[in-house]
Write a structure and sequence with these properties.
This protein is mostly beta strands and about 500 residues long. Helices cover about 10% and strands about 35% of the residues. A hairpin with a 7-residue loop joins strand 1 (about 10-15) and strand 2 (about 20).
Length: about 500
């Protein structure tokens, strides 16, 4: 740095790699001509070239030179008053000096320009500037009028101070086609003809708003001017239009202003499942999905046209699965839709099928003596009970005079009891053998046992009948036969 007051520092705005502030002198001595890399691709490593793309200088009536051919000392001479003192970062053009600087496509440079005359309390400075016309025509808009116009954005801050002998204004150079070109020159010299270079003009300012120059080609010294002062105020990175959305597939890293050119590709669906594939009505299914990227804004799952996704999962890439219970029997379709609230983005779709079956009808078991299966229906009888084929219920033998088998069914009659025709065990009558069924086993006391003899089975009347179907024995039994034989014998003896 050269020890300038920070008040005169140049501000660098939104320029990566550049210092926050610097000086006009160091901009000219430290940063060489910008090359083609300083375009929209922003291929730079620092602020070099961001202020200008070409500078030509003629100092003290010497030969016109490109800035890169001058020594730092020669450049420093431009920032000294006529007495050799520091100008405070004003570039000063005295008679026999000339200066031409082109802007940069990458930035907008804001300059303050002063036309100064030593003839105080005169209009010489104004008279010169007011004859700088748009297009170089005597009928063109004057530079003061352009500064004061709201439609001419390249000029501003016009000041006319006849007492102090100067006119000042600000101008912006926003591209490599814009430039400032001043030649204080010698009296009556022709513009653009200094040293036959045809590069530096008497007074020409070319901007994006148009070109303003002296319509009569007179240099400032010719009209009583003493010097032209130029000060660089700020350098701001130009806006670059393009796609600035990092989620787009054509993001422009150099763009600063979105121009609506972004193109988008909605995420793909990695998986979508609804399980199990077969259920009974009233049973739930589990819904889940997995998306490939966050390039989406909403997930929807429809069942029979109705949304079933909980609100807290509609923006999830891979949410925790959730349950849903279908409401009707038959094939059920679940439609997944993934959308992105970006222009011209695609909609992704998938679906899953589930079969919903009718529920099986079960009969509730009401027999307290039976076990129940998983559906609540009757299973086997409980331990100590048998299935009564007559009633269909699980029962136990209720005859108190009979023994019980292990399954609860009736066994033999207890001692001194016999099974009667009523199917129950009754006491044996004392002194009699009441078993009149000759086809039945008898107990030790002569009473009927509870089983038939071999080859016989109980019939519906509880008498033992031959398994071959022969007629059952008469209820009279042996006693009846003996009585009959006795009667016949008595008749014969009488005769």
């Amino acid at each position: 740095m050269f020890g300038y007051d920070v008040f005169n520092a140049v501000s660098f705005i939104n320029i990566p790699g550049a210092p926050t502030t610097d000086t006009f002198k160091e901009v000219l001595t430290g940063y060489p001509t910008a090359d083609s890399s300083f375009g929209n691709n922003r291929g730079y490593t620092g602020p070099s070239g961001y202020v200008w793309s070409q500078v030509d200088v003629e100092e003290n009536n010497g030969n016109e030179n490109h800035l890169k051919n001058l020594t730092d000392s020669a450049v420093a001479d431009l920032f000294e008053w006529s007495n050799g003192s520091d100008s405070g970062d004003w570039l000063l053009l005295y008679p026999n000096d000339a200066f031409h600087i082109k802007g940069s496509d990458a930035t907008t440079s804001d300059y303050e320009i002063r036309f100064v005359t030593n003839s105080k309390n005169t209009s010489k400075a104004y008279d010169y500037v007011v004859n700088m016309k748009k297009g170089g025509s005597s009928s063109g808009q004057s530079l003061p009028a352009a500064c004061n116009s709201s439609t001419v954005t390249c000029f501003s801050n016009y000041v006319r101070d006849d007492a102090a002998g100067y006119v000042a204004f600000r101008v912006k150079l926003s591209s490599s086609s814009d430039y400032l070109s001043f030649d204080v020159g010698r009296t009556n010299s022709s513009a653009g003809a200094r040293d036959n270079k045809d590069a530096i003009h008497a007074a020409r300012i070319k901007t994006q708003c148009g070109t303003w120059e002296r319509h009569d080609n007179n240099e400032f010294q010719d009209k009583g001017g003493s010097r032209i002062q130029i000060r660089l105020l700020s350098v701001t990175k130009n806006e670059v239009q393009g796609c600035i959305d990092p989620l787009a597939k054509n993001t422009d890293d150099d763009a600063t202003v979105d121009d609506g050119s972004c193109q988008y590709t909605t995420t793909s669906i990695s998986s979508f499942t609804v399980t199990p594939a077969t259920i009974k009505i009233g049973e739930p299914v589990t819904v889940s999905w997995n998306l490939a990227s966050p390039k989406f804004s909403n997930v929807s799952v429809l069942y029979n046209g109705s949304e079933i996704v909980p609100s807290d999962k509609a923006n999830a890439i891979n949410p925790v699965p959730f349950s849903f219970t279908p409401t009707s029997v038959g094939p059920a379709t679940f439609d997944l839709t993934v959308t992105w609230d970006k222009p011209n983005s695609q909609t992704r779709r998938d679906d899953a099928q589930v079969t919903v079956q009718s529920a099986t009808s079960f009969v509730e078991c009401t027999d307290s003596n039976r076990a129940k299966d998983s559906n609540g229906e009757c299973a086997d009888c409980k331990t100590g009970y048998f299935l009564d084929n007559t009633t269909g219920l699980c029962s136990q033998c209720s005859d108190p005079n009979r023994s019980k088998n292990t399954d609860g069914s009736c066994g033999d009659c207890i001692d001194r009891y016999e099974l009667t025709a009523a199917g129950i065990c009754e006491p044996v009558i004392s002194g009699r053998n009441d078993c009149t069924d000759s086809n039945r086993e008898t107990n030790s006391d002569g009473s009927c046992a509870s089983s038939c003899k071999s080859g016989y089975s109980f019939d519906s009347s509880n008498y033992c009948q031959s398994d071959s179907g022969s007629t059952k024995a008469s209820p009279m039994g042996i006693t009846g036969i003996l009585v009959g034989v006795g009667l016949l014998t008595a008749v014969a003896l009488i005769a």
